[in-house]
Design goal:
The chain has four helices and nine strands; from the N terminus they run E-H-E-E-H-E-E-H-E-H-E-E-E. With 187 residues, the chain is an alpha+beta fold. The chain starts with a strand and ends in a 6-residue tail after the last strand.
């Protein structure tokens, strides 16, 4: 099983991302564009585990809590590792401080199961497209610069999800295995 932990977001944001991709796609024909219906905000990529370990992963995620929902605002376009040799094109996410804390809590909860901790800083984003090999995409960089102030929408999330990623020739397919409400009860 190939697993990851992620937040979902509303359909209106998904529709706005679909429109954004439609605007950008003609500027980078060599990019592999992501299908908006499969997009998510990754908190932790777990990778391959044996199906027998699924129960342990699910149990490790169960106690994770936060005092309030995660607020996210989707805006701006960027490139990993940079604009000159792009591997990934992404939509930025400005989020409440507890998003990074939630990702760190997920990461810490899985370390005792032998799942390595993240070595890179958490950078919330939505992957829009990938290049293989890395590419210079001057037209896309220009189009992205013109759309830096574009507000794509917002989300207020109170649960995260464990997904299985099933790799197929047509692209990855994601199956939600379990949802985890993470906001502490206010009583």
């Amino acid at each position: 099983m190939r697993l990851f932990v992620a937040l979902d977001f509303p359909d209106d944001v998904r529709a706005a991302i679909r429109d954004l991709i439609a605007r950008l796609k003609p500027t980078a024909k060599n990019a592999r564009w992501v299908r908006p219906e499969g997009m998510h905000v990754t908190l932790k990529f777990i990778g391959h585990i044996d199906a027998k370990e699924l129960g342990s992963v699910q149990a490790a995620l169960e106690p994770i809590r936060s005092p309030q929902p995660v607020e996210m605002f989707f805006r701006g376009i960027g490139f990993f590792p940079n604009e000159r040799r792009s591997r990934v094109v992404w939509c930025g996410i400005e989020a409440s401080a507890n998003l990074a804390g939630l990702a760190a809590d997920v990461d810490r909860a899985l370390v005792p199961l032998g799942i390595p901790a993240e070595s890179r800083d958490f950078t919330p984003h939505l992957t829009l497209a990938r290049f293989a090999p890395p590419a210079r995409a001057e037209d896309l960089v220009r189009a992205a610069a013109e759309l830096q102030s574009l507000d794509v929408g917002s989300a207020r999330e109170t649960e995260f999800h464990l997904f299985e990623s099933i790799l197929k020739p047509s692209g990855a397919e994601y199956k939600r295995l379990r949802s985890y409400p993470f906001v502490k009860d206010v009583a």
